[in-house]
């Protein structure tokens, strides 16, 4: 059984974000299920997770830019840091055949994601709602000044 399973507790009531998050959780579960498979299978599952996560984070970064988050915010920095770790563990597995860090990353992502979603992503979803941002059209009901949100987008983060 996977460490992290999609549930209503992870839902943020922002449909496009919730679908993307559910896909992330499912791909993470597939990578976790492959931990004891052949290295090539594990690498393939983790690469699928990484490919999804690149677009997942880019999508949220685009939403932050469209809704007035500063490009210099800790939410975006966290995305970049997580992607760098994911890319590094893939490189170690591919080049050196060292799958230990990749396996550890699977476990760490399952621990990290619920907190990220319930703080930073929840803050972004709330902000999107406040400005009336429609992710499908990229339009906001309220005028958005560029770079007005400089914190992490979390209700627990101070500017």
TrEMBL record:
Name of the protein this chain belongs to: Hemerythrin domain-containing protein
Domain Hemerythrin-like: 17-123
The keyword Isomerase belongs to this UniProt entry's keyword annotation: no
Species this protein is from: Azohydromonas lata
A Pfam family the protein falls into: Hemerythrin
InterPro entries in the record: Hemerythrin-like (IPR012312), Hemerythrin-like_sf (IPR035938), Hemerythrin_metal-bd (IPR012827)
Keyword Iron-sulfur: no
Coiled coil ranges: none
Signal peptide (UniProt feature, chain positions): none
Family that this chain belongs to: Belongs to the hemerythrin family.
Keyword terms, alphabetized: Iron, Metal-binding
